[in-house]
Amino acid sequence: MGDVLGYLSLHLHAHLPFVRHPEHEDFLEEDWLYEAITETYLPLLRVFDRAADEGIPFRISMTMSPPLVAMLRDELLMRRYARRLDKLCELADREVHRTRGDPTFHPLALHYRSEFGDLRGHFHDRYRRDLVGAFGRLEEAGRLELVTCGATHGFLPLMETVPEAARAQVAVAAAYHRRSFGRDPVGIWLPECGYYPGVDQFLAEQNLRYFFVDTHGIADATPRPRYGVYAPLYTPTGPAAFGRDAESSMQVWSAEHGYPGDADYREFYRDVGWDLDLEYVRDHVQPTGQRKNVGIKYHRITGKTAHKEPYDPGRARERAAEHAGNFMFNRERQIEHLASRMGSVRPIVVAPYDAELYGHWWYEGPTFIDFLIRKVAHDQKVFRLATPGDYLRENPEQQVATPPMCSWGAGGYAGVWLDGSNDWVYRHLHKAAERMIALARDHREPTALQRRALNQAARELLLAQSSDWAFIMKTGTMVDYAIRRTKEHLLRFGRLHDQLRAGTVDEGWLGEVERKDGIFPEVDYAVYRPV
Amino acid sequence: MASRKKTRAGTRGARGRKAAGAPKAAARAAKAKPGAAVPKAAGARGGARKPVAAAPAPERKRRPAAARALPPPPRPAAEPDPESHFVARVRGEEAVREAPHPMTEAAVESAAAPRGRSQPRPRPDADDLGDLPWGYGDDALVALPRDPSTLFLYWDHAAPTLERAWAGLQGGRAEIWLFARRGDEWERVRVEPFALEARSWYLHDLEPGRLYRAEIHIADARQERLLPRPSNAVRLPPVGPSALVDDRFARIDWGVHLARWLGQWRAGAPFADDLREHLARFGDWARFGAGAGGGSAGGMGGRPSSPWSAPGSPSSPWGGGR
Asked: How far is A238 from B255, CA to CA, in rounded Å?
């Protein structure tokens, strides 16, 4: 480890629900993927690759959730994304033309044209449309440590009554990660940081060495942890729980005082999709003509009022550099202090974030990370960036304790995914899981067609379990879509179940469903055999 | 009383969406605020925003229809901004409710309300899948942990089961009996009348950290009958530092496969309680003015921010920012 006093573990959780609709030429929710590629995944890859090319010794861990990986590997979605990026470049060209002669906004239009062109170049030329491969190469190069997630981001604490369902979420995810990246995942991001005592055994089965919990997951563990969140805990079956550090999280997450709220940063809501004449942007907004963000934004946050001043990328970049310096400085002082109290044990400060916060919400976020990893490498000697895997390799002796059931959602437990808006789903999810377990138990030697139906039933159950649907119902955003997705998967599962039980699998319909919900082509329904 | 009636189970999922009709899209477009225009001149920096710059009306490009592409699904004409999901995730529930553009279905609907609503459109159902069953009739009572003091129950009973339970009773009522584990025994800690038709129920104000299970009983003045089956046992999460101080450490070398690993603990050295508490304080969300939890999934959005972790805050315990 050298002579540093401790570690900073920066973790980016990249995840999107599986939104793939081959049955429609345009589908609104696929925007989630396209926007995240343009604003988060490509910019982060560009930052990481540039630093790696320059030999900057950084280490960052990152979740690549299975649904996200599946979408990034999907030829149809990547083709659609390429078309979307082309349209964005066209719009940027038109903006350059439209703003000509405007000394304030013309440079910004040029900025976007250059930026989108560069991203397009990276997407096609450097990454050959294969972003999964690009992240994988960064892991091979020793810069990233990629971990998996629940197969479809199912919230595990609410599966405790059907443990086979929780185990399948973990096992399918680990298998898919191996196939996608050609190596075992060393850790897992439990969906929503949702842990319950006992789920660690399913992680151990897959040799997943660590996971993350929110701060109280460590603080309230039994027995009481010696070092709080500044050292991991081994759960009884071996996987280590790393706890989120409250302060470093707050410096980025806080809506009011966090860095992303700085007045010089780009304003998220002021977008030409809302600001310009509807006819001008009609090809870029919703097919109904309803406006939406299109990704070209000319204003900075400025203040809390509706008045927004023009955005200055150069000034914002300077602020990102200052904030990276401030973040590093605070970690230096924090780690010095902790190290002085923890004796021979070197503290680790764990700072996990949703990856999509960087770039999509906080436009300058990737620049912040760029500055941070460079400053940490060159401007200080108190700590170094390390992944949880690095930490455990260097510090294999840790306290043993059991975290309580917990999550990182509002309230800290299951309240986000279990309230009056979404609790109706669980009787159906649990029943489907019970039926899936029974199907797996009863079909030891299925025919080829039965096997296809069984595997598709497993896919439908997994897709229905995504925590994103319950979350959307709770937040009241795209509720209609979330309800529909939950129901469709459950109903398809139910029909497959009934057909399998009746011995009359409809092959034509099965083929159609396989085409629509084709996540995890290699899934093996046997993963649901009783624990 | 400790519990409150929840939203009727299943009704939210089965509800018809209050879809907005095509006129609403036009209304939304017409509602684009003049102040939302792109300022044209540098002088806009300190002043009021100018009206929208006259953008040239582009020639509409007609994309050739894909040979096998289906028409767009019959969606409501007005949807929340698709970015609402991102905003909810990374900024929380409050952020989507306070957004300047409608980011919730309720906001979309209220934005269009003055112009009236069209009839809901049918949802796409290409598979002709029907709807989820109301119940499964399998005589189940399931308990789920919601938070340290709240248990969620849902149940489902076959009609004959219910008929037998109510048969011969005079003025009977349904009760939830809640049991908590104490030592080797289950002690009844609550009897709560409820409406069986509710199909689910939240039990609040329970003691954190205890193991619970529930039963449903049908009773009248003379007798009571247990509805099959008792629930599963659920332990609610404990809150606060554990009273158990037992420093055991394990060494797990990286090369060991966990599935084959056998736990071998060894006792740790004595550890000062005051130091343990000191470290716990630094990891305590409470010093940021809120309880446990937070982060993504809407947690951070509602969390009061730190008074001293702001960029450059001079009151940082590590000595202030620079």
From this structure: 13
